[in-house]
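Subgroup meeting minutes
Present: P.N., E.W., G.H.
Scribe: E.W.

1. P.N. recapped why we're keeping a running log of single-chain structure predictions: easier to compare across weeks, and new members can see raw inputs and outputs side by side.
2. G.H. added today's entry (288 aa).
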Amino acid sequence: MVFAGPPPSVWRDGGGSAASAINDAGQVVGWAALGVGGSALYGPRQRAFLWTAAGGLRDLTPPSEEQSNQSSSNYPLDISARGTIVGSRIHSGNRYRLLTDTTGAAYFGPLDDQIVYTGVNGGGQIVGYRQGLNGTVSVLVDAAGTRVLPAPPGTVPSGWPGDVFAHAISDRAEVAGRVHAAPVRWTVRVTPAEALLVIRELGEGLCLDVQGAGDAPGDPGKPATLYPCHGGANQRVTFTAAGELRLYGDRCLDVWGAQANDGDPVVLWPCHGGANQQWRRTAERLVV
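Output recorded in log:
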C-alpha cells in the first residue's frame, strides 16, 4: 500500500493516527493522538485502537486508564492470529511493556523492568527487548517465563554498539531483529536450549549461571548461582516438560543431597528424574 500523503486521522479531533500491524483475520491495531491543542487531563494522549471492516474503529483504552491522571502513551506494535496485542507504553518518559487483547483488557508491565514488547506469534510467544544499565538485550516471553535471547554471532551481547533488539517472531518461533549502530540484521530459531533463565528482572537482569562455567557433576565448588546475563553455555538452560532445568544437554540442576533442607546448595548432576531435579514455575518463583 502506498499513500500519496499522510493518511487521514481516525481520531475524534484530527490528531493523526498510525496503523502498526494486521493479522490474517483483518484486525488492525495502531494508535491515534488527541490532536494539536488537545488536552488529556485523564487517560493517555496516544491511545491504542483496534479497527475491523465490520466494526470500524474502537478505542482500546481500559477504564482504569481513563481515570488516571498520569501522563502516558500506548503504542500497540503487533497482533497475533488469536487477537493478542503487544506493544509499549510511555510513562514518565520511560518505556514499558503493553499486553492486551481485542476487548481492551490491558495489562501493563511493572514500572521497573524497562521491557518493551515488539512481536507476538500464534502460539502466544512474545519477543521484545529490555533496557538496562549495561545495554539492551532481546527477550522471549512464553510459558516458561522471561528469557534472554543470545546475541547474533560476532556481536557483543550487551553494551553499545552491541545492543540487540528483537522485532518480530513467526509461528515457527523464528525471531528477527537488529543490532544497534551496526549494519547487522539477524534471525534466531527459538528452542528451549537457546534461552537464558532470567531469575530477577532488575537493571540488566540476572541469569541462572553455573559458577566458573564448570560442568563437573556435583562439584560443590561450581554451584548454580546468579550472575549478569551474558549468553554463555553455562547460562543456556532447557526447561523440559519433565520439569528439569538442563544445561550442557545431559546435566540437570540438582538440590545437593536430595534432602530439601534450607540452605542446601544447587549443583549440576547427571539427569536422573529424581524429585530433587524436578522444578515447577509459579507466578513468582521457581520451586523444587
